Design the sequence.
């Protein structure tokens, strides 16, 4: 008989290995309780309960009983009763999904306060202002989060009271003002909902729990999960915890601390502290917090205890920890811990330093960084001079360089970005509702907040440039402008440059310079702690990875750069790029030729040009394989546009006869769907001499390199093969030309001939094709198009955004490989091909070859290499190493 499902766990019953059930926050609270840190007691409602609620609209029947029992245990531990008229127990209700979603779901503090208990807590604490401050917070949070009242209505009432009293901050309102404000808040709720704020503490608690469940499906939560690729069906846990109060006066406060700097990774204790405040005040930026070092001056004993606890947590989790804490009348409480979000720079430095300290192994350090983070570090930075005076300085919350037009709300950021404009979102402070605008913007700039503010935490997680707490900026969202301390006015639409590394914002567009990491990767020379960390991670990745990494490169310059970035060859050299520019006239002549002689003359003129191209590329990649794809696109792409020709002929007083010839050729070669027409191997077989010219150019280039003392490793790839008969014919032609060149030059050539698998039929008949191929290279761009039956350009511009929004796609199949469909064809082809030809080499040359998630799949599928653009090579090397370690871990876990 199966054990009945348990929906509620006291903190003392759990641990960090239960994150799937208790959520990350609940598992952290349980773990800290287990190791003896000062955690206010409480209990967690599991993600299983949330899943039932989201599926049925009702809580599991057992939940009410289990929650009541857990609450009774909490009341006994605290010696107080929830909402009692005298000295009541108050609790917080917080979300806590398995994966951190900062600010995306709901929190309600001070549950248990009502018209009676507010007097009781005032008497017990001896502070009437504190009691009414807590009560107004509850009514405001509950009204907005649970009862659905527009939060701006509460803010307007609060602002009116501050204006009347001529004060800037909430904490300067006295008890009488707060009591009056609370009544106004209750009246707002009554007017907007038709019901009163509930006085029953049990009702407050149960409705708050349901509200947290509901917040899983808010728009901002869905947008965040979509961006971070978090599954929709995980649900959230709910943490109910005894309240401790940081708003009890000067000897109390609240803060957020990091065990290392989340922006740079430097060792030390970093964070913000806000005296006489509750927890949400720090991240919301309602008042400018103090650096954590100020707590040492205010209360050295508490600061020392905090540092000890931070050290304990980092040693326990063996990683950067993000900790929320409260000081209640001189007593320190730890309210939350999680492995902290960090910038790409911090990720590499922390992993490197922890490895140097012996806290983690080399393998663990590598797994903790990613190719996506490395790519971000390769972005350029601003090149500034002493004459570049910033508009303002702020907190460098998330590094990088970004330029854009200033916008002052999320909707405008989304609108302009959708129109192709780069924007910078400027706010006094951001809220979770700003998430769509933060995603759309190139950078986020706020006049309030610090490294632990909502803007900073979310921007770091997304890799967005962010500067917070630029206090010199007076942001006016109504007038849609901000004013600097020196009187400069910046209106919406004006362009600014935001430097997230220096923490500055500049008027206009600053010039960019190559990143320190980019330079180091090309020279393999460390320039400082960050580049040392990056090069160390790459060196270890290279030592453990099985997948080779090649480049997609079409020019000698691309080849040189790719090799400097660690490419182990060229997996795709596109020859069509060599037919553009000044050579287009020769291609036109070949296409227009009506007789064999004219076509042969055009091909003969193209031959030395192609030979020179290949010679230079083989020289740049000397000793490494270079896979040269024969001409792939349809020939009409090398001719002028039909409409352009027609207009030119119509407007010309004396039309050029060649234009008439070109127009006739364009119309003769017109296809309804050219990407599924005469291209690839079909073109090579249909146009006499074209394939032979290209193969001869490859062979003569390789021969020239051999005679020059080089070590050329040219490979010939036949594109768009759908049947083995096509490959046999093409291979026979290629082998004939190779033999001719060998006989003419007296030089033997070892030139493998393979094919590009980019059609479903080729994948499904790979066993037959492999008998005639030396290698397979998967063209996953076309394979995705032909498998899905769609045109990438058309689909991405039309219905893809809708499909992503509705969850049809979690991610574009052109960005990350569709493992169930396209990926399955790859697996079938590899397995069938190697069954016939055990030595068959397999790789991928579509842009999926540089995508981190896709690289892990290609490793599992048994491919020999991935090939990608030169810029993505370092990230691909890193991910290939991580894939090998991840697969090893999975294998050992199953033994």
Sequence:
């Amino acid at each position: 008989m199966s054990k009945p499902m348990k929906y509620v766990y006291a903190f003392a019953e759990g641990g960090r290995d239960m994150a799937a059930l208790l959520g990350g926050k609940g598992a952290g609270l349980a773990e800290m309780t287990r190791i003896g840190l000062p955690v206010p007691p409480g209990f967690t409602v599991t993600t299983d309960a949330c899943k039932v609620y989201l599926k049925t609209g009702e809580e599991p029947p057992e939940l009410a009983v289990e929650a009541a029992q857990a609450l009774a245990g909490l009341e006994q531990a605290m010696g107080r009763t929830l909402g009692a008229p005298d000295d009541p127990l108050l609790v917080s209700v917080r979300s806590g999904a398995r994966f951190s979603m900062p600010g995306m779901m709901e929190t309600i503090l001070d549950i248990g306060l009502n018209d009676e208990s507010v007097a009781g807590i005032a008497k017990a604490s001896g502070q009437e202002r504190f009691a009414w401050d807590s009560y107004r917070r509850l009514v405001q949070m509950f009204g907005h989060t649970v009862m659905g009242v527009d939060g701006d209505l509460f803010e307007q009432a609060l602002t009116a009271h501050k204006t009347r009293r001529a004060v800037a901050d909430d904490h300067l309102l006295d008890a009488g003002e707060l009591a009056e404000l609370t009544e106004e808040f209750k009246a707002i709720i009554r007017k907007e909902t038709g019901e009163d704020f509930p006085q029953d503490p049990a009702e407050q608690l149960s409705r708050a729990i349901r509200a947290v469940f509901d917040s899983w499906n808010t728009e901002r939560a869905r947008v965040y999960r979509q961006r971070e690729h978090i599954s929709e069906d995980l649900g959230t846990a709910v943490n109910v915890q005894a309240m401790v109060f940081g708003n009890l006066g000067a000897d109390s406060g609240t803060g957020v601390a990091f065990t290392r700097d989340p922006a740079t990774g430097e060792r030390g204790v970093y964070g913000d502290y806000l005296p006489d405040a509750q927890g949400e005040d720090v991240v919301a930026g309602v008042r400018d917090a103090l650096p954590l070092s100020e707590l040492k001056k205010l209360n050295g004993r508490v600061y020392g205890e905090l540092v000890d606890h931070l050290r304990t947590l980092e040693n326990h989790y063996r990683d950067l920890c993000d900790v929320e804490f409260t000081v209640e009348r001189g007593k320190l409480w730890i309210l939350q811990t999680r492995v902290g979000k960090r910038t790409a720079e911090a990720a590499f430095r922390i992993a490197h330093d922890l490895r140097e300290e012996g806290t983690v192994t080399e393998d663990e350090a590598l797994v903790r960084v990613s190719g996506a983070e490395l790519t971000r570090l390769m972005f350029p930075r601003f090149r500034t001079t002493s004459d570049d005076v910033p508009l303002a300085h702020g907190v460098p919350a998330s590094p990088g360089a970004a330029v854009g037009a200033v916008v002052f709300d999320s909707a405008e950021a989304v609108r302009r970005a959708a129109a192709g404009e780069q924007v910078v979102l400027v706010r006094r402070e951001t809220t979770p509702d700003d998430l769509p605008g933060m995603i759309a913007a190139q950078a986020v700039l706020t006049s309030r907040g610090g490294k632990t503010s909502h803007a900073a935490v979310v921007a770091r997680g997304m890799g967005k440039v962010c500067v917070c707490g630029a206090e010199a900026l007076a942001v006016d969202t109504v007038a849609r402008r901000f004013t600097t301390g020196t009187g400069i006015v910046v209106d919406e639409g004006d362009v600014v440059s935001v430097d997230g590394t220096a923490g500055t914002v500049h008027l206009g567009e600053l010039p960019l310079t190559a990143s320190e990491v980019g330079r180091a990767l090309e020279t393999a020379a460390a320039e400082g702690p960050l580049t040392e960390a990056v090069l160390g991670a790459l060196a270890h990745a290279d030592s453990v990875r099985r997948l080779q990494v090649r480049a997609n490169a079409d020019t000698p310059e691309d080849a040189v750069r790719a090799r400097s970035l660690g490419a182990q060859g060229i997996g795709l050299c596109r020859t069509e790029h060599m037919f553009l520019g000044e050579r287009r006239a020769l291609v036109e002549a070949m296409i227009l030729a009506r007789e064999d002689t004219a076509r042969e003359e055009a091909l003969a003129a193209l031959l030395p040009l192609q030979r020179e191209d290949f010679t230079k590329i083989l020289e740049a990649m000397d000793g490494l394989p270079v896979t040269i794809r024969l001409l792939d696109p349809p020939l009409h792409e090398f001719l002028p546009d039909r409409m352009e020709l027609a207009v030119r002929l119509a407007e010309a007083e004396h039309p050029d006869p060649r234009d008439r010839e070109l127009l006739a050729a364009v119309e003769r070669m017109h296809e309804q769907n050219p990407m599924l027409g005469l291209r690839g191997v079909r073109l090579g077989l249909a146009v006499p001499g074209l394939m032979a010219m290209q193969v001869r150019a490859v062979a003569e280039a390789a021969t020239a390199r051999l005679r020059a003392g080089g070590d050329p490793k040219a490979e010939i790839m036949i594109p768009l093969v759908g049947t083995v008969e096509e490959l046999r014919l093409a291979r026979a032609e290629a082998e004939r030309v190779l033999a001719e060149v060998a006989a003419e030059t007296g030089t033997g050539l070892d030139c493998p001939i393979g094919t590009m698998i980019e059609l479903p039929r080729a994948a499904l008949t790979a066993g037959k094709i492999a008998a005639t191929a030396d290698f397979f290279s998967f063209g996953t761009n076309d394979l995705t198009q032909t498998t899905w039956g769609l045109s990438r350009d058309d689909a991405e511009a039309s219905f893809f955004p809708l499909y992503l929004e509705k969850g049809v796609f979690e991610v574009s199949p052109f960005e990350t490989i569709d493992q169930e469909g396209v990926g399955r064809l790859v697996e079938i082809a590899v397995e069938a091909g190697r069954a016939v030809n055990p030595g068959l080499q397999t790789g991928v040359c579509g842009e999926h070859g540089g995508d981190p998630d896709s690289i892990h799949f290609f490793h599992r599928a048994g491919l020999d290499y991935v090939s990608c653009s030169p810029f993505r090579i370092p990230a691909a090397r890193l991910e290939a190493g991580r894939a090998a370690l991840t697969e090893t871990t999975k294998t050992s876990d199953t033994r």
Summary: The chain has 36 helices and 31 strands. The first strand starts at residue 8 and ends at 10.
